[in-house]
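We examine the record.
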Amino acid sequence: MTVTVSAHLISSDLTSHYASYWGCGWWAASILPGRKVSAENAEFLIGAADELAILLDKIAPCAEEVGLTNRELLGLIARMDTDPNRPRADTKHSSRWWRRAA
């Protein structure tokens, strides 16, 4: 992963995302069309796009095994409730806690 920064362009070697200098310290990033960000934020956004590209490649085999695309699997994971304090299905707080085995 390499993010290249020059006076007028921030680009990546892993994705087609880029940020171009707009003037007065503002950058236009392809990830956020129509918005202007600082140079620091533009570099962060392009780096984040690279990290996501790496992650998508890593989860592709697992996604394929369960019949999903890597983006579908990532979307499902992102929607999951990852609150560690959330009651689990095997606790009495579950909606099925009252069902007992016969």
Remarks:
- The chain has one domain: 3-79.
- Helices lie at 39-65, 70-79.
